[in-house]
C-alpha cells in the first residue's frame, strides 16, 4: 500500500471511531420492501423505533429491529454508557441493492422467463442529539 493510500485509509478509520452504526449485508429481501420499513423509523428516537418495528406486520421489520439493537449495543460499547430512553436517535438509515440471483422460470411454448431474486444491504447510524448539531 502506498503512503497516500495509507494516509487516507487512516483518516477514514479515524472518522469511523466517532460514528456508531451497524450494517446488515445480503438480506434476501427486495430493497423496495426494505426501504418501506427504513422510512418508518428514519429520524426517530431509537427505543420508540424499536416499538414501531415490533408491531409492524412487515417481514423486514424484524431484521431492522435486530439491526437497531445491534447499533444501540455498539453505541453503548464505544461510549461506555448505558443507553437511556430519549437519548439515542436513528440519524440515518440507508438501503442499497446487493447481488441478484438470476433464475429461469418455465414459460409457455418452450420459453423461459427470467426471475430476479433481489437482496440488499442495510446501514443504520445512531447518535445523540447533542453530537448531531
SSE map:
Layout: H1 3-17, E1 20-27, H2 31-41, H3 46-54, H4 59-79, E2 88-97, E3 101-106, E4 112-117, E5 120-128, H5 129-132
Antiparallel strand pairs: 1-5, 2-5, 3-4
Short structural summary:
With 133 residues, the protein is of the alpha+beta class.
Describe the protein's architecture and organization.
The chain is an alpha+beta fold and 133 residues long. It has a single domain, classed as Ribosomal Protein L22, Chain A. Helix content is 45%, strand content 29%. The chain is built from five helices and five strands; from the N terminus they run αβαααββββα. The chain has a three-stranded antiparallel β-sheet. It has a two-stranded antiparallel ribbon with strand order 3-4. β3 (101-106) and β4 form a beta hairpin. The two termini are 36 Å apart.
Amino acid at each position: 500500500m502506498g503512503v497516500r493510500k495509507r494516509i487516507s485509509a487512516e483518516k477514514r478509520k479515524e472518522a469511523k471511531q466517532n460514528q456508531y452504526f451497524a450494517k446488515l449485508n445480503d438480506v434476501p429481501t427486495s430493497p423496495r420492501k426494505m426501504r418501506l420499513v427504513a422510512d418508518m423509523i428514519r429520524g426517530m428516537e431509537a427505543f420508540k423505533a424499536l416499538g414501531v418495528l415490533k408491531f409492524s406486520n412487515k417481514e423486514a421489520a424484524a431484521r431492522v429491529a435486530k439491526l437497531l439493537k445491534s447499533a444501540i449495543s455498539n453505541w453503548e460499547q464505544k461510549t461506555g454508557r448505558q443507553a437511556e430512553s430519549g437519548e439515542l436517535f436513528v440519524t440515518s438509515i440507508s438501503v442499497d441493492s446487493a447481488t441478484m440471483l438470476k433464475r429461469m422460470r418455465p414459460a409457455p411454448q418452450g420459453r423461459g422467463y427470467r426471475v430476479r431474486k433481489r437482496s440488499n444491504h442495510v446501514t443504520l447510524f445512531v447518535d445523540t442529539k447533542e453530537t448531531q448539531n
